[in-house]
Amino acid sequence: MAGDVVKARFPRRLLIQIVATNIFRYLFRGAARNWFRNIGSAAPALSSMTLLLLLSGLVGLVGFALYNLETIQSAEASLLHVYVRDDARAADVDSLWDRLAADPRIASVTYTTRAEALARAQHMPGLPQLASATESNPFPASLDVRVKNINDVASIDRLVRYEIAVDPVYSTSYDRGAYQRIQAFLLGIAVAGLAFLGLLGFVAVTVTMNSIRAAIHSRRDEVTIMQLVGAPRWMVRGPFVIEGAITGAVAGIVVFGLTAAGIAAASTSFAQFAPGVTAAVAAFAAALVFATGLGLGSGSSLISVRRHLES
Description:
It is built from 11 helices and 3 strands. It is mainly alpha-helical and 311 residues long. α2 crosses α9.
């Protein structure tokens, strides 16, 4: 009939694709174009964010290495060397061994001969020179006692110190307060590192917020027109939030690139420089830093947008 209107079928999938493409162009391409256009005002935020992420990654890797070092030192501190006197009788040594092995606080007891002690000292810094300075073997035999709880080392030391089979001059390897000093040192480093990163993070977030505020004021007329025509909030705020995310992402990419270059240049030195820090750990830390930069940039921008677009 002449009065009928023929409606063409418009596929829903094509409609969704067109809408998604337009949103992408408006939000992401527009934000990227504006970010490059205002690179001068974004440069301070990019520099501070890059420095923050780089130092955060370094502090994280150092912290991971110190944690592994603390674990190693804790394991070493729980191993008590009971030095046997040179003229000790085998029966006295066996009796002491049996009593230590029967103690529920002790995990294991092993005997190290003088020859084995000398061989072990050859792999410790400074001790090979001591061994070569004398013709005789300066390292005594010992009962190596592995304690289950590091807090019981002191009591085990008091138990064996005056035994007849133990050297009366240099009886054990126990160093009072050594493990506590290590823990206090690591705690001090952790507190200082977190305080410094917190201060630097505050600076980076503030600078990023200021750069977004400058972008908002430079496009005040455009924002006002969009608000007057009834544009939804996400259309007004979205480009600025994405600009901040771009700043954090670019900073993360820079840090990721520096980390990759460091891994390529010194992949065999990570284990020597920092215990437990492998190339895989460094790559994971770089990826985490990139994600952190993305979150910090977008979060800083969102705070600035809420503050300055609603005022």
